[in-house]
Specification:
It contains three helices and four strands; from the N terminus they run E-H-E-E-H-H-E. It is an alpha+beta fold. A four-stranded antiparallel β-sheet has the order 2-3-1-4. InterPro entries: ABM_dom, Dimeric_a/b-barrel, Jasmonate_Hydroxylase-like.
Amino acid sequence: MSDAPVEAFEPPYYAVVFTTVRTQEQSGYRDTNARMEELVKDVPGYLGMDHAQNPGGLGITVAYFSDAEALTRWRTNAEHQAAQRRGRAEWYDSYTIHIAKVERSHTFKRA
């Protein structure tokens, strides 16, 4: 994952904000997370992802999709659904998902 934010896209598009607090038990999480990051790249309409985590354990991942159909393709992917089930069973104390349609977007870069 890059240290730079994902570039702005021409709206409209969708942002999925996945905010998590993880459990102490993280066996297999890193490998599964890496697999999900690779798998989502193959979804037509996937635009990119930003992620941050604080030392206290709060994590925020924002994934961007060109349209609702792309988001549905990702949400209904069988391997992704299996990872979701394992996440609820083992890796997350809590999570929240927000889905938003982006109507404005811009990027700033210092020269």
